[in-house]
Amino acid sequence: MREMYQQIFTQANVLFLLKGLAMTVEISCIATLLSMCFGTLLALVRTYAGGRLRILGNLVAAYTEFFRFTPNLLWILWLYFTVRGNCIVVSVLAITLFTSAVMCEIFRGGLNAIPKEQFEAAQSQGFGPVGTMVSIILPQMYRKVLPALVGQIITVIKDTLFLKMVDVPELMRNGSVILGSIYEVHGMLMLFAFEGACYFLVCFSLSLVVRSYQKRIVRA
Q: Where are any strands of DSSP class E within 114-188?
């Protein structure tokens, strides 16, 4: 068992796995930031677009429903085989398109939870529509949806394993390369345990940071 462990977790293999983990975190961060920006815009349109702009709200609703009820892996594969370009860029685009739809619904719930009196109070203090959104409404919305938002970010981190299907050098793909040289079940289980520990440490660390931030808000 010890010899098997030393054979699998050589310095080169561990560095190769950690390089894949770094790619996983990098893709997750970029896709999450893009999804938050696009998802916020979609939520604002769907929540407040009325009158002549109601058609935009309907289009956003169609977009969110379409992406939310289709698999993320489907879009990764579809874009990979239809959009020519760097596989990492295409993968980030696919994850962003899918996750933005989920973010939109999360943010829309947060916007609906904010009392309409907030808008009236902001206007009485001289805030315009843009100032009201940026300075008053959106900060409250992000605080209200923080637990659901963190849950979705963790889902994004775990969903990066789908990128193995399009040969993006993330953690699971690099692990599969090493797996090809392992012929014992115990060795495979050791490798899977290491990969699981990597995902757990990243996701649990994120959860701890957010919990600490929430406690600080409560004390304040």
A: none
Find, among 35, 32, 211, 40, the residue nearest to 110 by Cα: 40
**162-177 pLDDT, tens per residue?**
999 999 999 999 999 9
Residue 201 to residue 82: CA distance in whole angstroms: 35
Give the global pTM: 0.91
- pLDDT < 50 stretches in the chain: none
Q: Please answer whether residues 140 and 116 qualify as being in contact, where contact means their C-beta atoms are separated by less than 8 angstroms.
A: no
Total number of domains in the chain: 1
CATH number at residue 167: 1.10.3720.10
Q: Give SS3 for 10.
A: coil
Residue 189 identity: L
Helix 146-159 / helix 11-48 crossing angle, nearest 10 deg: 140
Residue 160 DSSP code: G
Domain that holds residue 24: 2-219
pLDDT tens digits for 80-110?
Answer: 999 878 889 999 999 999 999 999 999 999 9
Gap between the Cα atoms of 51 and 89, Å rounded: 37
Query: What is the CB-side half-sphere exposure of residue 190 using CA atoms within 13 A?
Result: 20
Of 143, 163, 175, 206, the residue nearest 77 (C-alpha): 163
